[in-house]
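Follow-up to my post from last week.
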Amino acid sequence: MWKSIRTDLAMEAREMAQEQKQGEIPGVRVENIMPAEDIVVTRVEVVSRLGEENIGKPVGNYITLEAPEIRNRNPEYEEQLKQQLAAEIRKLVQLNDDSVILVVGLGNWNVTPDAVGPKVVDKVLVTRHVFEFVPDQVDDRMRRICAVAPGVLGITGIETGEIVKGIVEKVKPDLVIAIDALASRKTERIGSTIQIADTGINPGSGIGNKRMGLNRETLGVPTLAIGVPTVVYAQTIGRDALEMLIKEFSGQADPHSKFYNMLQALDEQHLNSLVAEVLTEGLGDLVVTPKEVDLLIDDAAGIIADGINLAIHNGLSMEDVNRYLH
Amino acid sequence: MWKSIRTDLAMEAREMAQEQKQGEIPGVRVENIMPAEDIVVTRVEVVSRLGEENIGKPVGNYITLEAPEIRNRNPEYEEQLKQQLAAEIRKLVQLNDDSVILVVGLGNWNVTPDAVGPKVVDKVLVTRHVFEFVPDQVDDRMRRICAVAPGVLGITGIETGEIVKGIVEKVKPDLVIAIDALASRKTERIGSTIQIADTGINPGSGIGNKRMGLNRETLGVPTLAIGVPTVVYAQTIGRDALEMLIKEFSGQADPHSKFYNMLQALDEQHLNSLVAEVLTEGLGDLVVTPKEVDLLIDDAAGIIADGINLAIHNGLSMEDVNRYLH
Amino acid sequence: MWKSIRTDLAMEAREMAQEQKQGEIPGVRVENIMPAEDIVVTRVEVVSRLGEENIGKPVGNYITLEAPEIRNRNPEYEEQLKQQLAAEIRKLVQLNDDSVILVVGLGNWNVTPDAVGPKVVDKVLVTRHVFEFVPDQVDDRMRRICAVAPGVLGITGIETGEIVKGIVEKVKPDLVIAIDALASRKTERIGSTIQIADTGINPGSGIGNKRMGLNRETLGVPTLAIGVPTVVYAQTIGRDALEMLIKEFSGQADPHSKFYNMLQALDEQHLNSLVAEVLTEGLGDLVVTPKEVDLLIDDAAGIIADGINLAIHNGLSMEDVNRYLH
Amino acid sequence: MWKSIRTDLAMEAREMAQEQKQGEIPGVRVENIMPAEDIVVTRVEVVSRLGEENIGKPVGNYITLEAPEIRNRNPEYEEQLKQQLAAEIRKLVQLNDDSVILVVGLGNWNVTPDAVGPKVVDKVLVTRHVFEFVPDQVDDRMRRICAVAPGVLGITGIETGEIVKGIVEKVKPDLVIAIDALASRKTERIGSTIQIADTGINPGSGIGNKRMGLNRETLGVPTLAIGVPTVVYAQTIGRDALEMLIKEFSGQADPHSKFYNMLQALDEQHLNSLVAEVLTEGLGDLVVTPKEVDLLIDDAAGIIADGINLAIHNGLSMEDVNRYLH
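User reply:
Got it. Predicted complex:
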């Protein structure tokens, strides 16, 4: 019933499918581990077209790291999380010493909750130019990373996909890593959950409106997507509030009563139109964020950038990364 | 029934009171005018303790300018709005040529929706030092304005009220104008509504948590508050969605049925606990904003600053203000 | 003698050549007009290889607008300047109604004096996506503009020229306009002088270190460069101080004395090494800027962006531009 | 001869005095230590009115830490420097467990090289409000710190000293620590040198134009000043270039020649007017900075803030500070 709630997390899409079906979802495999205290890794694999239809995400691997303690900014915890993120990234990519990796920071740097991609680009240890222009300064453990933040359609007048494709054709990377801000259905995941997907970015995902995908089909190279939820759509909050109330009522009502039937008869469209009445349009997409979203996004961007730094540069420690970054 | 919804706008508080009472609110006078196309001015006067209790705002005047067209950034419309704002400010203050006015920009400049006060301070035409140090550069039409952005308790470790009082005792202004970000109950008012109140700032109002008021009692000088809604609490959205649903059901139900009675029996506390269940705590106060809130707040701060510039400097045009500002 | 002073302004290069030769510079034509009060337009044309050698700038047209009054922020003066800039741009380009124009904002947005290019990109009226996705919203007088800020080598790991070329091959513009921060030899030109050149950007010009040109040869389309001085190299200040002193001494000395000969014998290398002794290396290139450089650059970027808006969009007024920009 | 060169560092003022006098400076004691590799601590004590006249700094203690390696951002080096800074601060202040410390970040946050004070305020571990409102969260090793960034005269219209005095009278601190950006005479000291002075801030020092001092006389409490050079005045560069040239010539000239006499006859005023001719006025005070000044200032602000955190909070480690800061 609640399929229309917007989420970019495969893990949440699967959960919602399961809530409805109340059982296993055909075509989707899921695995949970807890590699460290307060870090939960969920690996969702969409294995078939059937799975694709069931949860609305393309065939591929989706790994989610939930790290609620990120808000306490404990340095050791953050390092654990970065190492775990690096380990999960490495599982999804195949690189050799000469590989070139292009990091693409999607989103609009002028809009706080959409700025996570450009912020990651700022914090990645870019090295491709060092290999090219000052090869004697290259550390053996480094790989060639380059990074761009192409902006959004409204700023550039150009589809982001066109810009990225143009750059890919010049740079000829072996791997693209696209970073994006995501929408979750749960406010507690804002800034504290990271999703890695080997399916790239697909049209309509992310919190901006992407029209063109960034994936192996469109770019011609393997494309990893890494994202972090930065918003929950206000609609989702409204929908969740309604759902709660209906559950509450349904529990109290006599299942043979007219009232119970009325509750069951409330369909998706009806609920959506109730929510739409509350959330006036005209201001663009209304989103729910914590007031401290600026800070949460800075932190998440740092974690992702360092996860990439550790995953791609082959054996650099966080200390090495910090030294080279400055 | 819905009194717990958080709003800092007296106009909304009155509306909500009226929705319940379905009639005039004793102790509260209200007047509406439309001084220009797409600008609505609502003047709410709380005239007695009874009015105070009824709408939860202290005795005094609350003027609201609603300007939905602000989003289109039409320069003529913006100038009309600034002139109207200036006219309303002048109605609430009494100044002579030697008056000193202290503008206080409340809020946290690091948190976008709380930054409107500091942004106004940046855009006000400050002149007190010109009078003092280069009096020959004073334009006859200017009055003495000075301006501070004192920060918030979490940044300074000092109650904002203490800082402001310390500065007031040194500067001895004849009028304080305190600028603050507000919470509304309606998302369409974000960035497009301005409230002026001659009651100053009272504890608990504004989107940060103020513990101490800034008003004639605490500061010893007349204190005007000017604010603009920058957020709607996520709770409010949830509450509104529930309210819609209940109305919907009530309309369909037989007023003699058990179901109808059940709906009427849903009390405030019950609804609040439903909302609390949906909106997970732990991220601080969740707020709903449009993604473009950065831009809306910049615009609103410009309007307020120029409204003050036109109201206080006695006869400067917008052109004069722009020339002097740089 | 003073050829090593770094300037990106053809006008200054010509002046310096003339100071040495004390006469006309072969291969270089120059023309001065004053189209409005306090606006001086200098058109330098390098007509031959000889001219190229004499002033160190490639064959082509270089138009400089000097507008010292820009600092007073008089709105009418600014509008005159924008209109004049637009007129000069139109002289150097040939467009038809279907032309696509790509604005490229060069430089590093994290380094204030290098950020003028990205700032112009932010202020240009981008329309290409409107033509493509919502053609009914197109104003007849608009042309297709798109805009990118590709970053700098140290941030992206990719030569800026590669990125731009990749994008040019996708977008296929009819004209590229590249915006860059320049070095001048005179501090009073910072933020108040604009140069337009139909030679594009050539390696080594601009205040960052560009290795690859952006011009008709490298990009395959006509390329206009627009720049504004944001720094004077500290070296230049040192050199100028020395030059002053030597002139002073020379004026006082007996032209037959040993001393006079000693002064004349001071060659370029000797002076350079003196300057290098004073200006410690190791902090990167030291530059001289006014402390208010942030503000000057914002203003200059606004002027350039609107000059482009007026030149390219065929008949839009500044009012139209402002309305569409928001 | 070169007294007019502007420096806020007592160490440099003493050096310049010594260059002229070629011997000990009466009334001034100086001591040098090297507590760690690449950290030089110079303690200058002005002991009498005679010393005051000789170097132009009031009677008191001036401690300078020179840390050229700060640019390499080695975390261990930075920690050593913070610990050393903390140790030097502790030598100049007397605190007990209940002391209240007010940190005042002077300068203009909109002007990069003047923003170091406000940046330190952002990074100091503010605790006074924790003691007052949530005393059970106080760590035994904390002292009461509060912090304000009062802005500059041109922004507020109020003398900074008035604002600070107003706050001091409310908060009644036992110690004020005022942070300011300084001018040095040597470019290599920008961002890499820190001066602590127990004389507070005196009129005319710092890179903005302060009119009123912040010291024990004006505030009524002990006042420590901590500063970091962020600029060298362009004039200083010009002067240094001239001085070099004159030394060069003097070395070559026959000491009995007319030329030699001419060189010796060049007096201060003459040189100043030469410099003034070269460095056009009109853009405010021209300063020399490295282009990367934004980064250098961020780093220096972090060092100073942590030096204060370690010095004042009695026994917190850097790890504790980092944990509490977030």
